[in-house]
Amino acid sequence: MPVHQDNYSLGKQFHAALVTADWEAIRALLHEDAVWELPGDNAISGPAEGADAVVERARKIAGYGVNFTLLHILVSRRNMALSLHNTARRGDVVLDEHLSTVCTVRDGKIAAIETYLSDVDGMNAFFV
């Protein structure tokens, strides 16, 4: 199978595991030394270093009741990105952001994740 098809499948698996809270499945998609970078200054910002920390970050984000609507899976020659529309409500605070989660793929697994956001201030207000 061509690499871009493998990466598309990897993106589908990652999103499916995220929306079903299948933390073991996410863990299986990651390299041990995986890193996830998120912008902002809030409870989920900064680097999560190591596969266990990446899974814990996903669990924490999901714990806020976020809906992860998949818009597109984008593939390059070597890597993959998820285009998402994330929404949630916590009391009067609303999360409504578009983002791209860009994944560096190594040997068929996710080695690094960098998330790009449309509304960093809104994320900071939501994830306290």
From TrEMBL:
Domain SnoaL-like residues, every copy: 13-112
Classification via InterPro entries: NTF2-like_dom_sf, SnoaL-like
Pfam family, one: SnoaL_2
Top-rank taxon, per record: Bacteria
Name of the molecule in the record: RNA polymerase factor sigma-70
Originating organism: Streptomyces rimosus subsp. rimosus
